[in-house]
């Protein structure tokens, strides 16, 4: 058998220091080395199946090979439930042996039970999520399902009991732990094609990771509602909640959203890891020339700087980074957000509450009376908020905010549509930065693109290089390795369009020709639009053409 310690270091990236700590704990208190490392947060529960597979030579369990699984005819329900208590599933019975999928093939209790049955077994190693999907199928054969829109008192009590049972708790923890290990920003749980689908959003792209049994939907949904303070009996209206927990040695805030669907509820979890966020210009990945222009704007003491882009384009993170650059003891910064997702040290952060009439406009009126130097408004959504924000800039404040538009110049037309006067825009706006997020190539495995000549023919890469003063093009392609979970990408990079509200822009009439003329003015100054900045990131080896087309095409 392979040495466990050697395998942990070589295959699972456990440091010698962590291994020594685990061995010291083991010598004092006993216990299994891999379980101690899980408790330390060095391994995840989902690492255990591949670990046991490599250590013992057992095959991994593949649920897709058993799409229509049911309890084998020769097995009693008592046997199935006993195996379930041992975290083991009877997959199949043949003339010569039983096939068992086990979470812990080293379990002494399991070995004793198999010996008691006097059978030959074929062992597969399974994860917690894989087993729980099948266990609920067993449970559904012996219990009625609770799925009425209206719950009686007894049914609600049974739901709470299901949600607090070890299989539900362990499965949910396993899914969250796996999401964190893969660097997911969100987890989506939703009914789909007769199953309960689990998807992770990693670097802005959704990946399907599990298809759980439909019987698991209600216990998991209920568990999440209980943890996030929602009403478990309410399944007809959208709900929002928040969970604070510690998993895999990480402090975690989770925003939970429940949305009723025709065949159940869609639950989305957004993970907020405070330790993992760095509000640093170098992390954003701004192009050097764009960053230089923005730095010039940040030293101003009055005016409005706007970030534009769709939901999920990193606008808030970029604004936080700007605020972090300006955050000093002699500067008072107040933010107005919906919701406050990350705490910024030294910054006064206010959360709007529309239920009591404290919206962005009302909050902004109150903030101005607090004598701030810098104000951040999470989003300009209406005419009153827009007007107050711009007027605040004229009375000695530097204001940051966001609007939802496709490019930088469109921010003007959006604010005009909200009813802001043209003279106010010309007087208050300092600059507008449009942004998208593209996946960053994994630097461990990317390699020079195979089709460079084709790309040079189809896209104006050479023109972008010439305008940017780049002589040598470095066009890379995604490959995939262990570091990036085989995707070829790790992390994201900002793609930006910068529009300074200079004298030329102020003199252009804000009519239906404004966007075209503003873009032409930017081009005359050799400032890139979103697509061109994306191509700039391609020729510098940061991302790929396909990524740029996906987010800015």
Automatic annotation (TrEMBL):
The UniProt entry, under InterPro entries, shows: AAA+_ATPase, P-loop_NTPase, T2SS/T4SS_dom, T2SS_E_N_sf
Organismal lineage: Bacteria, Pseudomonadati, Pseudomonadota, Gammaproteobacteria, Alteromonadales
Domain Bacterial type II secretion system protein E, first and last residues per copy: 368-382
Q: What is this protein called?
A: Type II secretion system protein GspE
Q: Which GO terms describe its molecular function?
A: ATP binding; ATP hydrolysis activity
The reply on keyword ATP-binding is: yes
Q: Give the UniProt family note.
A: Belongs to the GSP E family.
Entry GO terms, CC:
plasma membrane
Name the keywords, alphabetized: ATP-binding, Nucleotide-binding
Enumerate the PROSITE patterns for this protein: T2SP_E
